[in-house]
């Protein structure tokens, strides 16, 4: 079965950076589009970024307007790992971050900006 394990969250100050990782198992990772979503306390789940499964030359990434220009999604198919680079963090970025493959998501990693 599919397992997604996120890591890399933490407590940072506004303007700082973090790099989140998500290791996938139980799937042929390179064949799947992947995404990151987040959920702040009391709020609905928000899609953050997505990346296609295409070879790197054709691979496409997309972002929510709220993170465009600050966050970068990437993947290393050799390591079955999805990344999210978070730069210029704002207090409103505070949330639990999850990687997703279709309806499946991991346990999440907490990002707190304060």
Task: Characterise this structure.
The chain is mostly beta strands and 114 residues long. Helix content is 0%, strand content 50%. The chain has no helices and eleven strands. The chain starts with a strand and ends with a strand.
Q: Radius of gyration in whole Å, from Cα?
A: 13 Å
Fraction of helical residues: under 10%
* Residue share in β-strands: over 45%
Major sheet details = 7 strands, mixed
Separate helix tally: 0
- What form results from the Cα inertia axes? globular
The mean pLDDT is: 96
SS-based structural class?
A: mainly beta
Instruction: Count the E strands.
Output: 11
Oligomer: single chain
Structure, briefly:
The chain is mainly β.
Compile the SSE list and pairings.
Elements: E1 3-7, E2 10-12, E3 18-25, E4 34-39, E5 46-51, E6 61-63, E7 71-76, E8 81-86, E9 95-101, E10 104-105, E11 109-113
Parallel strand pairs: 2-11
Antiparallel strand pairs: 1-3, 3-8, 4-5, 4-9, 5-6, 7-8, 9-10, 9-11
Descriptive key words:
mainly beta, 7-stranded mixed sheet, 114 residues
């Amino acid at each position: 079965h599919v397992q997604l394990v996120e890591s890399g969250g933490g407590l940072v100050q506004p303007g700082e950076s973090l790099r989140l990782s998500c290791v996938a198992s139980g799937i042929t990772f390179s064949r799947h589009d992947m995404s990151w979503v987040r959920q702040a306390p009391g709020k609905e789940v928000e899609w953050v970024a997505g990346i296609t499964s295409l070879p790197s030359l054709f691979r496409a990434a997309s972002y929510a307007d709220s993170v465009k220009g600050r966050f970068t999604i990437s993947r290393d198919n050799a390591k079955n790992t999805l990344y999210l680079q978070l730069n210029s963090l704002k207090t409103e970025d505070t949330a639990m971050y999850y990687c997703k493959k279709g309806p499946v998501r991991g346990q999440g990693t907490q990002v707190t900006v304060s």
